[in-house]
Amino acid sequence: MKQKICINRQTYLIILIGLLFVSLYLVISSTALSTEKRINSKAQTPTTPPNSPQSISDGGNSNKNYVLYVGLKKGTTTYTCSGVLIKNNRALTAKHCFDGSATIDYISNYDDSSKANFKDPSYYRSSGDLSIVSHSKADLVVIKINTAYSKITTFPTITTDDNDYKKGNQLTVYGWGQLKNGNNTTIQQFGNQKVMYDATNSTVETFLMEPRWLSSTKMTAGDSGGPVMKSGSDTNLIGLQSESATINSNFSKAIRLKTYATWISAQ
User: Fold this and answer.
1) pTM over 0.90
2) Residue 193: which residues within 8 A CB-CB, separation 6 or more?
């Protein structure tokens, strides 16, 4: 004869409370894991400065006086992009440097920001002397400089030749970087770049430069907005360094400046 098992009300409540605690624990654990994944995802793919730009490390020193440090500020955080003078009162940089409500703090074309006279008036312009105009679509900003540079008389010129964007053309990039000893920041150059795909069509907005892993030069934060020059020319400006390409993070994407030459000249 089978024995009937009876569960009194008290035992039933204890079991029910236990099941509720187990369910609550599983929900909390799942939420914590999901949050951790989101945090890790954001850490690996930053979308706001100062981590979004790239920069030259261990390149060659450059004394090109048209290459700029572009200092920006977001709250109490200061970080650096690069830029290029195209006139004594106009400069270009990358628009994404201003992501996250950042504002322009200064520009300077002095070659070594660690030196005491980095803010020498011959080189330095502070925020009160500067204003910006952003392109509505392109990763491009024109910096207007109220007090024009008087000691700089030679500036690069935006190319008028679509053939400068042919696949395989050799390029030299310039920008804010770090010396090999790691102690000083300086304007640097790196010449072993090339156009990866043909971009001679006049409607093309960007072009890709060769994968970074093919070179020994490291890229870290700060180089966005730096000029891309046709190799062998000190004055033929064809692009601005923009960001890593979405199709392959090893590619470096640059703004095709000839496409925007008319807009730039109107500012």
Assistant:
1) no
2) 170, 171, 172, 173, 209, 210, 215, 228, 252
Write the CATH number of the domain with boundaries 58-265: 2.40.10.120
Domain extents for the chain? 58-265
What does the chain look like in DSSP terms, one character per residue? -PPPP---HHHHHHHHHHHHHHHHHHHHHHHHHHHHHHHHHHHHS--STTSSS-EEES-EE---TTEEEEEEEETTEEEEEEEEEEETTEEEE-GGGGTTT-EEEEEE--SBTTSGGGG-TTTEEEGGGEEEEE-SSSS-EEEEESS--SS-----EE---GGGG-TT-EEEEEEEEE-TTSS-EEEEEEEEEEB-S---STT--EEEEPPGGGSS-EEETT-TT-EEEETT-SSEEEEEEEEE-SS-TTSEEEEEGGGGHHHHHT-
* R_g of the chain, CA atoms, integer Å: 26
pLDDT per residue over 110-158, tens digit each?
A: 777 767 778 888 889 999 999 999 999 999 999 999 999 998 888 999 9
As a whole number of angstroms, the distance between CA 97 and CA 70 comes to 9
